[in-house]
Amino acid sequence: MSIVKENIEVSIDMPSKNHSKLQGRITTLLNIGYEQVYDVFTELSIQMNDKNYEPDIAIYPISEENWRHDEITVKSAPITIIEILSPTQGVQELIDKFEEYFNAGVKSCWLVIPNLEIVEVFTGNTLQKQTFTQGNIIDNSSNISLSFDKIFRRKAKIF
C-alpha cells in the first residue's frame, strides 16, 4: 500500500526477508555483469511526470560520479525498473505502476514474484511480457541477461 501526500508517494509496503534477499542478489548480479554499462540503484527516489517513486531497483546508463553534489530525487526515468512483489502487495498495484513508468519513458519493467519463483519482463506501453521460470532472464530493451538459477540460487539437479 502507498500513501500519496503532496504528489509524493510514500510506500508502506513491508519488504520481507525473501524480498530483501532477492533485491540484494539481483543488484549484485547486475553490478558484476554490467558495471561498465549501467548504474544500478536500490530504493532510489525518482520523480517522473510530477510524481515521486521509489522502485526496488532502478537501472540507468552509466554516468560520471559527482561525490560533491548529491541528488535527493533523480528527475529522469531509468531504462529499467525492477519491482519485487512483497507479501503485502498485490500484482495489480505493481502493474498499475508499470503503466505509469512506461508513460514516463521507462523501457522495461521486471516483476519478480518470489513465492512462485517467477520473473516477468514487461516492455512497451502495451505491457507485452515474457515470463521466466528457468534459464536466462533476457531483457531485450536493456540487453540485460541474468541467470534465473543464480537469482533464486537453484542447485543443479542430478538425476
Automatic annotation (TrEMBL):
Presence of keyword DNA-binding: no
Sequence intervals crossing the membrane: none
Top-level taxonomic group: Bacteria
Record key words, sorted: Endonuclease, Hydrolase, Nuclease
Domain Putative restriction endonuclease positions: 14-138
GO MF entries: endonuclease activity
UniProt KW Kinase keyword: no
Pfam families: Uma2
The protein's name in its UniProt record: Endonuclease, Uma2 family (Restriction endonuclease fold)
